Every structure is written in C-alpha cells, then in structure tokens.
Amino acid sequence: MKQARNTPSNVDEYISWFPSDVRQVLKKIRSTIRKAAPKAEETISYQIPAYKLNGKVLIFFAGFQKHVSVYPAPRGTDEFREELAGYKGGKGTVQFPLENPIPYDLIARIVNFRAASIIAETSARPKK
Prior knowledge:
By secondary structure, the protein is of the alpha+beta class. The chain is built from 4 helices and 5 strands. The chain has a 5-stranded antiparallel β-sheet with strand order 1-2-3-4-5. Strand 1 and strand 2 form a beta hairpin. The termini are far apart.
C-alpha cells in the first residue's frame, strides 16, 4: 500500500504505490474525473490526488487496502442522499469497497455536481 508519510510528486506516482488491481481502479477514477471536469487542475494535496477548479477543491480520491474513497461527497444533498446512504464514509466522504463494482457513473455525477456548485459560487463573487 502507500508508503508511510511520503508525499507523491504527482498522481502517477501515487497510483504506482498500489497493487495492480487497485491501480486499475484508481486509474479509472482518475479518467472519470478528468472526463467529467476537463478544466480541473490535477495536483497532490494532503498526500493524495486532488482536483481544483477555479482555485477551489473539486474532489480528492484515495486508495486503501479494501476500498477507494472520494471526497468531499455531497451526502447532505437531496440529489445524492439516498444513493450515498448505501456506502460507508463520514459526513463528506464516500467509500467504495473494492470487492464490489465501482460506480464510476456516480463518481462522474458527484464531480459534475461539485463543478457546477464551484462555478456558480466563483462566478457569483464580485470581481476585486
């Protein structure tokens, strides 16, 4: 699994730290995010892959031994509340067990939802 306390220099390096089966899932999550938000900037933040849009965090993803996580997850919104209730995770996190099919379509919808929120928020701000 991930090397303890090391910060990867980029997303490719982060993904390379995992076993082959987890790497494939992480690569697919990465491509799902890129397709859903092609203008998002890919970076490493808090030692995991992160995507920023208009200077704000769009989404993070991380790999673990038995699951992958994405966050922030819109658990409190009507659009996602029921669907995300079936997955473990904290208030703003969702865990997808590696033993089950990963719902890439759901991840894409979360990214689209978050991107729309960020765009609305940043375009509503008065210019300095």
